[in-house]
Amino acid sequence: MFLPLLAFVFGSAVMAAIALALIPSRAGAIDRRIEELTTGRVQDEVERPRMQSVIGFMKRVGEKAPRSAKELSSLRLRLVQSGYRREEALTIFFGIRIVFAVSLFALFSTSFVMKPNLMFALGGLALGYLLPGMALARMAKRRAHRIRLALADMLDLLVVSVEAGLGLDQAISRVGAELTFAYPELSDELRLINLELRAGKPRAEALRNLADRTGVDDLSALVTMLIQTDKFGTSVAQSLRVYSDTLRTKRRQRAEEAAAKTGVKMVFPLVFCIFPAVWVVTIGPAVIKFITVLGPIIENSK
What we know:
Low-confidence stretches: 41-46
């Protein structure tokens, strides 16, 4: 009994000594962390001028691009809905569109990928001109979807804040601060409302700007409800609670609709991907046997 106990104690001591030897010292850990932070900062400082040079090049190209007044307003609104609010965002977008179109034209007009073809080069030019707009629309749609998913939690926080005694402006500011980590897009939009109110804009105009910046139908309905509530002097908390229940009903109905569409959407992968493989596995051996048996008979009959 004594020898196994002694072996256990000795093994434990050896393992503890190895663990203590492998644990880095406090000074070493601090030095390594400082080195990581310094290296990351140096990399950021190196990458930042490169990014600024690329953005500057796109901006110079975009400034020389032809523009139509009819397209400018829709593109600017789409950029704002995608989260790009800077004044130079539109110019940079035009530069990206031109550079992308010219790059695809040069790629298809040379023998780098395939035999040079003027039709393919013109098609690449048109595709390169259209793809940035399609990508921007996709980004705006994804951002609107994230904001739509955050509306229910925002409404719950607004109801709690208003019923606790805060005014609507203070409640919007507090909810925007609370949603910074979970829903940064919606938090930024609520903070912009607070900034516009501080700058002196009327509440109705600031709320309408929120609906225009996001492009979310549910948020537009919420803005309309808040404006009407403010105009007619009804209870804001009661209106928010009713709209919160309505919004959750809509979310449940959307989920049920998406679940009902699943069966129809599964038809295409089943028919084009799974069914051919099942057909080859089940019918393939019989077809091979059929050809092996009847092939010589058909040849002899001829």
